[in-house]
Structure formats: C-alpha cells, structure tokens
Design a protein that fits this description.
single chain; mainly alpha; four-stranded mixed sheet; 13 helices; 4 strands; 64% helix
C-alpha cells in the first residue's frame, strides 16, 4: 500500500502539472461550459412571444372588446385590429399574422345564453407555435370569463396551472439538461482526446517501463479531469442560478453526489474510447458519435422520449445520459425525490463500475 500511495501521488502530481501546461484542455473544461450555457441558454427557447395576431370585432360592443383585452399590453401577442373577416384571413394567408381571432356579431347576447363562441384560426405551418399560441388564447379567454363570473367559454371555465415551473419558462426546462450535456462533453471528449494524444505521441508508453501498474495509470488520469469537470459544473450551477434564475428545489449535496457518479460514467466512456482508438481524430469522432449526439437526441434533453417509437425509447433507456437527466431535472425543479435518486443513481453507479472496469482491463502495459 505504501508503494501504491507513493506512485499515485507522483502520477497525480505529474498529471496536474501536465494539465496546467495544456491550455487547450483547460479551455475545453472551463471556457466551453460558459460558452455552451450562454449560447444554448439564450439561443434555444420553446417560449412563444410577440405573436402577430389579427382581431376581427364583428361585435364592437365594450363587452366584446373586453373579451380580447388580454391581448393588449401582453408579451405574448402583437394584436392588429381589422374591420372584416376577409381582411384578417388575407393577413393570415400572407403570413403577416399567425393567429386570427374572430368575435361574431351576436357574441354579447350569445355568451349570456350559454352559446358564446370565439373562433381562433392558427397558422399550422408553425405547429409548435400554433399549439402554444392556442393555449395562450384559451387561457386569456378563460381568465376573462372567470373575472366576469360567467359560466365559461363553451359552457365551462378552464383553469390552467403549471407545476414545477412557476415561471412557465422553457429555460428552466433546458438548463438542467444543458448541465448534463456539458458534463458529458467534458467527461467523454476531454478524457478520450487527451488520452489518445498521449497514445499517439508515445508518452503514455514511456510509463510502461516503470513499476506503475495500468490501474494506477488510469486512476491518475481520471483525477485531474474529474476536478476540471467539477469546476465546469460549478460554473454551470452559478450561471444557472444567478444569470438564468433557475431554482434548485432539491439539496445541493444530492446534485453534487449524483453528478460525481455520472462523471465517473463519462470519464470511463472516454477512457474506453481512447484505449480502443489510440488516435486523436478517431477519438474525437467516436466521442461525438457515442456521447454528444445520443445525449442531445436520445436522452430527453429536448424531446419527450415517451412520444417516440418503442425502439427509440428502449435505446434511450439503455444509455446512461437519460438516467442522469431524470435525476438532475428532478433535483432542480421538483425537489429531492429519494425514490428517483436511488433508482436512477443506482443505475448510474452500475454504469460507472462497468465503464471504469472496462478501462482498467483495456489498458495494458504493452507496446503495439
């Protein structure tokens, strides 16, 4: 054990010294999280705002005008009042507006008779925008009905409420997934490329003539990149809290613990890739193919996997990324759910053991 501690201390010191001289690795581990969280955090949004809206008031009474008053001054709509249905339809055909709201001539009387209708025509070319906008219009009319004490639109009042996302912001949805994406890129790509570079240059093989064991080599390689990845995660947590104002409902200790387990998974994948390829270019390509693309598409980062074919769902459940995403989103938005953490965290721990063990077995003190 004394020899193991002495060798590990020397190897870890060497790795940190080597890392401090490698500006590209430091930039990838520290600057990349900042760039990604700013670009994706600000650049990707599912929120729909300032939607051009044509309003036809065939009933020009104050009652009818009050029904669409929620459009005025709203961040979600840019209303344009037109005099006829034909004019509104032409604006919709010309793609100058995305929504047409038509208040019929007998609206005021019909509402009190329980048969009031407001026709909303949405531009279906932009399906996601149309669905969100339709929800906004329905919510606005429902609120007006409740304020007036009426029976409700179509005979029933609708009350909408969003759980676990009080701001109703897609940024709150994206940021936890973005942390998962950044941790994956740093853990897999940084480790695989840097290790492959050493295989390529022969510096890794120069250690084979020493008494150092393969397991000690792998552990020493993991320590500095583990620290760099934790530093990158710390930057993400600070930016998510103070720049994007995303709350953290769960315990910070749970976030750090589950993230550290996932880091071992990512580092293990990177070490396996480098041991297989031993070339920087191939390691970079494999990292993108195995980590970034599945992490972006098949983890549930953007798309709900429950809406995909069963085969895609099965592949997504096999990958470790989706399990970490479930944990980190739960911790950020809904709180510390021990059932989720134990189940998903246990799977991540199993993945970590598998990939790190594979890296140990595939690293041999042998010159090829």
């Amino acid at each position: 054990m004394e020899g193991f501690r002495r060798r590990m201390k020397a190897l870890i010191y060497k790795e940190f010294l080597q890392l401090s001289r490698d500006s590209s690795s430091l930039l990838l581990g520290i600057l990349l999280p900042i760039v990604l969280i700013l670009i994706i955090g600000y650049g990707i949004s599912l929120d729909v705002k300032n939607v051009p809206t044509a309003v036809v008031l065939e009933d020009s009474s104050p009652f009818a005008q009050d029904a669409v008053s929620f459009l005025n001054g709203s961040d979600y709509f840019e209303p344009t009042y037109v005099t006829s249905r034909q004019e509104g339809e032409q604006l919709l055909l010309d793609r100058k507006v995305n929504v047409l709201i038509d208040i019929p001539s007998d609206f005021s009387r019909a509402v009190y008779e329980g048969r009031g209708k407001i026709q909303v025509i949405l531009d279906g070319v932009e399906t996601a925008t149309a669905m969100s906008t339709g929800g906004y219009v329905e919510s606005g009319i429902s609120s007006w009905m409740m304020r007036k004490g009426l029976a409700g639109y179509g005979g029933a009042a609708i009350v909408n409420r969003m759980w676990f996302n009080d701001a109703n912001s897609s940024t709150w949805f994206f940021i936890p997934g973005l942390i998962m994406l950044i941790m994956t890129i740093i853990g897999v790509m940084l480790t695989s490329v840097v290790m492959a570079r050493e295989w390529e240059r022969g510096t890794f093989e120069s250690l084979f003539v020493t008494p150092v064991r393969p397991m000690e080599l792998v552990l020493a390689k993991m320590v500095p990149y583990f620290c760099v990845a934790l530093l990158g995660m710390g930057i993400c947590l600070v930016l998510s809290r103070f720049l994007f104002e995303v709350p953290m409902q769960g315990a910070l200790s749970a976030v750090l613990l589950i993230s550290m387990i996932y880091l071992f998974v990512a580092l293990g994948i990177g070490l396996v890739i480098s041991a297989i390829t031993k070339r920087q270019f191939l390691a970079c390509q494999f990292s993108l193919l195995i980590s970034f693309l599945p992490c972006f598409v098949l983890s549930g980062f953007i798309f709900d996997l429950r809406n995909t074919p069963i085969v895609v769902q099965a592949v997504g459940q096999i990958l470790p990324f989706s399990h970490y995403l479930v944990c980190i989103r739960s911790l950020f938005l809904s709180g510390t759910d021990m059932e989720i953490l134990l189940k998903q965290g246990g799977l991540l721990l199993l993945y970590a053991v598998i990939f790190v063990s594979a890296a140990f077995r595939m690293t041999r003190k042998k010159v090829e």
